[in-house]
User: Which sequence fits this backbone?
């Protein structure tokens, strides 16, 4: 025996171990990918051996390769094998590999349940430990449900090493299986007072993490935590607890009051900066919760601000950063105390560290006033010019807009200045926030009536300038402002100086390169402009001029009619017909201007973003009820132009019944019209619903435009916002002088007047009169809008499931599923298998729900009262933080919990007995059913069955994650009434010149298919690998039978001589279809198509290696270009990756380099560039024929996009 | 919660990656690359916190990193972790590595990534801090190593011999390559237990 072992290890020592692999990779810098694929082949061989040590070594190497980005999911089963090794050394390797590569989608993970359970109860603490560690990374809902009880037991293990791991992992279990929280909670709470500090710390950790998401359920633990806080010396624990209190105080202000003193003491006494910082943070949270009516806490605020100032002034950048971060929290409630440190914060804006600048920017938001806004924004604008990275620049941009637009433009005194700032911002290239600027422009132009004239002049200049058009390729790029510009110029065209000029600018051919939604707005607003020009011309009696404009429209509109964007095309062709009609009328000298401009009569008013949502539901209307019963699942979403202005407005319930009939359609159209009528931003093609706005002219008061004479009326070209700063200063100076004069006069009049009144040298904010009398139109809200704002919660929050009342006593149905040992009474109680337990624990829940609810209500009230009393008692005790009352509620509860637990056990037994005795018939029946479904599952799952896939790799590490488009790589091969064949061809890493063809056979008939044989006619170039001894003409049997409705996969290997060309092989599937009436021989012919792409293997490549490859010069080059592509670049790349087995090496904006390798080792490099509507692909490859064939295939794929 | 722990060198080559949320291999590589880009362009004397990358996490997350000689240690954490606490944790981690490897340098991590994982597993479990006391961690690691050795016993000896021979024959002997040792002494942090 020993000899055998030694022999095994001698064999083994010439295998590569991890160190050899790493060394090898380092020595093969040039052809790393090739070397690694060799190693993977070796690993595959090693995995096939029986020696567990060899396997473990292979898995260890795989873990390393996983870190380098190689998919190792194909070895999942081997990993499980290694996990179940008896030696700790191997077990650890297995669990590590599992923790790195398993996830919820790993299907073999369900095979691990029993192994993990065994390890958890292992006598060796390290076996248990390693299992817990591994499980913490890959726990799934199923594992959590099945193992929750075992882990619960471990929480009271004798060894603290196990206890702390078990406590920690419970958090993961709760997340995956929320039902376990209530049964496990009493024990978790117990662990807060564990004698071992590590276990205690773990328990604090878990409860803090839970409480952070749903704080209100953990308020009752406050006394316990308070005790811990005053007694613990472990800074980690202290920090966690203090952070937890920060989350609890907003719910219970009295807790805050109690906390302030000990926290202040800690701030004064601690030397650990981390603790100090967290204390300050929590004090801030307390102060925020107390902000109303506790004047005597100003001392605490002062202390905090003072400490933070020390942090900010510290030379350590980390402390500076955190100081600013905490300062921004104070800012929300006590802006005054922060404002006094303005100097410091402005100083931080110039810091060389970007993180610190960003934090300072946040603070700036609260620093502005009417007085200094222009100055601060000016400073920011210089930063914008200097900024290197686009992210920081974009951040600056959003901050400028935030600062200016905050609280309804409160601090803006001169809107012309603001518009010119916005216009200046449009010069930023490559920003992602074009839509933000656009939204601001629209908002200001619509709501500040006095500014429209100026805005229109600026916008027409924007439309005229070329630089915006040039950048139109980017999504959300700066070209978005053209959306706003076009709309403003159209809507307020009466203010235009040279409408004809603007009209021509909007009709330029280059406009057609803009994104569709912008073009659509262009088209619509061109008509508005046209209408106003017509009116002008007709009033001036220039009939010819009017006709010329019409001609211009007729000439230019066709370019939009040809647009590929549906919205643009539809609008354009509609309008073109309209204009042609007008032309006819004009030819007959009929005045048309009146009628045309009637199309756009009326005024658009701003509507609050949430207005739609807040319309109260009329009584008796049930929005959830079906109008018609749904027919199918297919969803049809209305296409509408993407709203730039506010997007969240139109979120409608997504699930709608699909089209039912004409009537339904008509009704829906009506509803849509209604909806659009209420949405002023929906640009209408019919004037009717607008009319009612007209009936109420000047809703409030007509704005008085008081034009400041110091501002030139017409600004040539684009303005510089700087000039406004100067002008503003002058203006203010003048105002001040006037005021002073007045003051002096007054002074002279009342020489002995009150000193205080006149001794204010600085002017307060309110003294600055705005440059223009502006009227900021408030946004409209529907009548009797609901004042609710509850809709901010994310329904997909995974932590919502953990929002569970923990104080309520446990119900019987809530106990954790307990796994009994099967070997004791296997034959008697088969239903104790996992799935049965699940059913048991779930079923009663449903039944009892109503009953429970009632009970819960009662108990809740009682419990709540009791709890509230306890907490009240604790909170109301006067300061000396005597923990005396603290343990009272907790021990109380512990006892409760204990008795409950006992009760539970009793019940559990009772249930067991229940299970055993009655209704044996039903049980059997159920069991049978289960087995059947199990069987089905198995056959569907098509595990790499030992018979068929003996020598073949199942999946050659080709990462298939990039399946963005919901497609399958399986394509239809052939079908008839019996069987449907789909196939997927993958290159094989294992052997040169081999491809694996996976054929899925689906039985569609009601007969059983057996004796299936596949015969393929070999060509010179491609041969099928057949079992030894069989001749070329023999068919290869399919290793399974197909019952009706079942599908399964078989894999075949083909050897290819030359891979540079695509080729086709003819084949036939013959089978016997057998049903009750008898058996028939059937045949199905098919053609296997080996495309060049199927010879490629997705191989990752680093950019440096890629660059070297390109430089090497032994690659030939070719390229293709495909037009008319609308798909996003991201999806396009995903498509190429998916269909042609490429991987992205690097991606910059709309340009990406990609790499792949053929099974014979050809390198294929691609450069994919996306233009306006086209995609060009430049390829380089060591074989020119292969490349050109590949590119042809790619062209075909792209053409479908 | 800690979302991910990454170690890579000055060239962005990963030496250890531990993700506590499932990501595909490709995404993992992208995250590593993105993180490297973010971290590597920062000067030495700027703060150790970074608002997260786009891929990992979103606004609640932060990157907290330390740069030792040739290596970056990056922790990606959410707002429930204390920033300074995590900085200290990185320090503890590196000091523990130093103890276990006896003057750790980059090559130790390169060739023994499995051991680094084992050490990390004693500190952080499933994204939550398990142990911050260095002595406790080292004790557990030593005990496990002892267990491993006893398991290898007779059978392990020849393998060890071969690997020693392999190390001798190869031109590249780790210790000869001059990569600066990871300097461990970082003075500016107040002691933290």
Assistant:
């Amino acid at each position: 025996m020993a000899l055998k072992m030694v022999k095994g290890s001698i064999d083994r020592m010439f295998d590569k171990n991890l160190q050899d692999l790493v060394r090898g990779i380092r020595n093969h810098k040039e052809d790393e990918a090739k070397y690694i694929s060799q190693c993977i082949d070796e690993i595959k061989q090693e995995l096939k051996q029986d020696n567990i040590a060899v396997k473990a070594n292979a898995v260890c190497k795989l873990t390393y390769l996983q870190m380098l980005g190689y998919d190792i999911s194909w070895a999942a089963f081997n990993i499980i094998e290694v996990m179940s090794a008896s030696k700790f050394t191997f077990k650890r390797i297995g669990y590590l590999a599992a923790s790195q590569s398993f996830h919820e989608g790993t299907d073999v993970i369900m095979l691990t349940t029993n192994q993990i359970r065994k390890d958890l109860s292992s006598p060796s603490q390290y076996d248990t430990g390693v299992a817990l560690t591994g499980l913490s990374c890959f726990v799934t809902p199923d594992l959590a449900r099945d193992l929750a009880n075992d882990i619960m037991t471990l929480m009271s293990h004798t060894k603290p090493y196990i206890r702390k791991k078990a406590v920690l992992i419970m958090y993961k279990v709760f997340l995956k299986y929320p039902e376990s929280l209530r049964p496990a909670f009493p024990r978790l709470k117990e662990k807060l007072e564990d004698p071992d500090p590590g276990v205690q710390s773990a328990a604090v950790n878990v409860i803090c993490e839970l409480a952070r998401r749903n704080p209100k359920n953990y308020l009752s633990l406050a006394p316990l935590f308070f005790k811990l806080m005053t007694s613990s010396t472990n800074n980690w624990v202290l920090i966690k607890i203090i952070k937890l209190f920060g989350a609890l105080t907003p719910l219970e202000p009295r807790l805050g009051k109690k906390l302030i003193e000990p926290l202040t003491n800690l701030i004064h006494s601690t030397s650990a900066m981390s603790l100090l910082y967290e204390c300050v943070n929590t004090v801030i949270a307390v102060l925020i919760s107390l902000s109303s009516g506790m004047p005597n806490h100003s001392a605490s605020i002062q202390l905090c601000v003072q400490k933070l100032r020390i942090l900010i002034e510290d030379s350590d950048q980390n402390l500076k950063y955190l100081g600013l971060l905490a300062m921004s929290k104070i800012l929300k409630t006590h802006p005054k105390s922060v404002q006094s440190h303005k100097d410091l914060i402005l100083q931080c804006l110039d810091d060389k560290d970007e993180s610190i600048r960003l934090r300072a920017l946040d603070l700036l938001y609260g620093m502005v006033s009417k007085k200094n806004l222009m100055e601060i924004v000016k400073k920011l604008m210089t930063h914008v010019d200097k900024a290197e990275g686009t992210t920081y620049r974009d951040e600056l941009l959003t901050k400028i807009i935030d600062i200016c637009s905050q609280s309804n433009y409160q601090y803006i005194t001169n809107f012309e200045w603001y518009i010119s700032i916005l216009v200046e911002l449009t010069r930023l290239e490559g920003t992602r926030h074009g839509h933000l600027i656009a939204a601001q422009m629209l908002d200001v132009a619509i709501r500040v009536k006095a500014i429209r004239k100026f805005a229109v002049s600026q916008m027409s200049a924007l439309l005229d300038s070329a630089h915006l058009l040039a950048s139109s390729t980017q999504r959300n790029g700066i070209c978005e402002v053209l959306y706003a510009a076009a709309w403003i110029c159209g809507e307020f065209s009466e203010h235009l100086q040279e409408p004809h000029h603007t009209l021509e600018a909007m009709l330029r051919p280059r406009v057609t390169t803009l994104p569709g939604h912008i073009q659509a707005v262009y088209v619509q607003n061109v008509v508005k402009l046209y209408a106003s020009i017509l009116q002008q011309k007709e009033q001036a009696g220039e009939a010819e001029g009017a006709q010329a404009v019409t001609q211009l429209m007729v000439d230019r509109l066709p370019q939009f009619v040809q647009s590929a964007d549906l919205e643009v095309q539809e609008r354009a062709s509609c309008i073109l017909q309209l204009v042609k009609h007008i032309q006819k009328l004009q030819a007959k000298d009929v005045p048309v201007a009146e009628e045309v401009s009637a199309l756009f009569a009326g005024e658009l008013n701003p509507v609050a973003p949430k207005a739609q949502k807040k319309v109260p539901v009329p009584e008796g209307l049930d929005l959830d009820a079906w109008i018609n019963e749904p027919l199918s699942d297919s969803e049809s979403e209305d296409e509408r132009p993407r709203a730039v202005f506010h997007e969240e407005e139109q979120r409608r319930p997504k699930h709608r019944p699909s089209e039912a009939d004409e009537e339904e359609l008509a009704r829906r159209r009506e509803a849509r019209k209604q909806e659009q009528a209420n949405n002023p931003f929906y640009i209408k093609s019919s004037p009717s619903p607008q009319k009612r706005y007209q009936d109420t002219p000047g809703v409030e008061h007509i704005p008085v435009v008081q034009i400041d004479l110091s501002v030139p009326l017409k600004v040539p070209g684009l303005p510089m916002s700087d000039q406004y700063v100067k002008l503003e200063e002058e203006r203010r100076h003048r105002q001040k002088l006037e005021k002073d004069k007045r003051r002096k006069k007054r002074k002279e009049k009342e020489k002995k007047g009150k000193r205080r009144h006149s001794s204010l040298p600085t002017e307060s904010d309110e003294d600055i009169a705005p440059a223009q009398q502006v009227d900021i139109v408030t946004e409209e809200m529907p009548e009797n809008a609901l004042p609710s704002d509850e809709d901010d919660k994310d329904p997909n929050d995974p932590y919502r499931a953990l929002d569970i009342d923990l104080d309520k006593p446990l119900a019987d149905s809530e106990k954790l599923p307990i796994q009994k040992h099967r070997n004791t009474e296997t034959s008697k109680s088969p239903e104790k298998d996992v799935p049965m337990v699940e059913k048991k624990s779930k079923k009663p829940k449903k039944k009892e729900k109503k009953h429970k609810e009632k009970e819960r209500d009662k108990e809740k009230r009682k419990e709540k009262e009791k709890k509230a009393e306890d907490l009240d008692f604790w909170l109301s005790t006067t300061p000396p933080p005597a923990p005396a009352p603290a343990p009272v509620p907790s021990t109380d509860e512990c006892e409760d919990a204990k008795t409950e637990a006992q009760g539970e056990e009793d019940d559990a037994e009772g249930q067991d007995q229940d299970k055993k005795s009655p209704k044996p018939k039903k049980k059997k029946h159920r069991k049978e059913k289960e087995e059947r479904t199990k069987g089905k599952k198995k056959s569907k799952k098509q595990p790499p069955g030992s018979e068929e896939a003996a020598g073949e790799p199942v999946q050659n590490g080709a990462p298939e994650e990039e399946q963005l488009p919901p497609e399958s790589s399986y394509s239809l091969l052939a079908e008839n009434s019996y069987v449907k064949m789909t196939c997927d061809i993958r290159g094989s890493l294992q052997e040169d010149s081999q491809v694996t063809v996976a054929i899925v056979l689906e039985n569609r008939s009601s007969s059983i298919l057996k004796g299936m044989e596949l015969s393929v006619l070999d060509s010179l170039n491609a041969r099928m690998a057949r079992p030894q001894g069989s001749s070329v003409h023999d068919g290869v049997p399919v290793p399974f039978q197909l019952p009706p409705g079942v599908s399964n996969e078989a894999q075949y290997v083909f050897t290819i001589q030359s891979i540079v060309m695509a080729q086709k092989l003819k084949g036939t599937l013959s089978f016997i279809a057998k049903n009750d009436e008898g058996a028939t021989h059937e045949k199905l012919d098919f053609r296997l198509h080996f495309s060049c792409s199927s010879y490629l293997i997705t191989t990752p490549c680093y950019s440096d290696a890629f660059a070297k490859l390109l430089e090497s010069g032994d690659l030939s080059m070719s390229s293709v270009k495909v037009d008319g592509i609308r798909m996003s670049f991201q999806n396009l790349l995903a498509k190429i990756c998916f269909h042609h087995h490429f991987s992205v090496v690097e991606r910059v904006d709309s340009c990406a380099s990609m790499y792949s390798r053929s099974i014979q080792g050809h390198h294929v490099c691609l450069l994919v560039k996306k233009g306006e509507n086209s995609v060009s692909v430049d390829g380089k490859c060591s074989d020119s024929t292969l490349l050109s064939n590949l590119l042809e295939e790619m062209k075909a794929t792209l053409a479908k996009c | 919660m800690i979302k991910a722990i990454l170690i890579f060198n000055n060239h962005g080559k990963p030496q250890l990656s531990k993700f506590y949320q499932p990501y595909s291999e490709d995404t993992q590589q992208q995250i590593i690359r993105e993180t490297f880009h973010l971290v590597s362009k920062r000067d030495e004397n700027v703060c150790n916190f970074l608002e997260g990358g786009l891929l990992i996490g979103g606004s609640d997350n932060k990157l907290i990193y330390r740069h030792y000689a040739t290596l970056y240690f990056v922790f990606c954490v959410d707002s429930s972790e204390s920033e300074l606490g995590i900085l200290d944790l990185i320090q503890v981690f590196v000091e523990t590595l130093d103890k276990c490897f006896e003057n750790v340098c980059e090559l130790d991590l390169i060739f023994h990534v499995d051991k680094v994982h084992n050490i990390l597993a004693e500190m952080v479990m499933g994204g939550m801090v398990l142990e911050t006391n260095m002595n406790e961690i080292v004790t557990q690691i030593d005990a496990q190593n002892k267990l491993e050795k006893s398991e290898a016993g007779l059978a392990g000896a020849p393998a060890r011999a071969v690997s020693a021979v392999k190390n001798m024959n190869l031109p590249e002997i780790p210790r000869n390559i001059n990569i600066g040792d990871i300097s461990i002494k970082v003075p500016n942090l107040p002691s933290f237990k």
Q: What stands out?
A: Strands of chain B lie at 2-9, 14-19, 49-51, 62-68, 71-77, 124-125, 128-129. Chain B touches chain A through 71 residues (CB under 8 Å). The first helix of chain B runs from residue 25 to 40. Residues 169-193 of chain B have pLDDT under 50 and may be disordered.
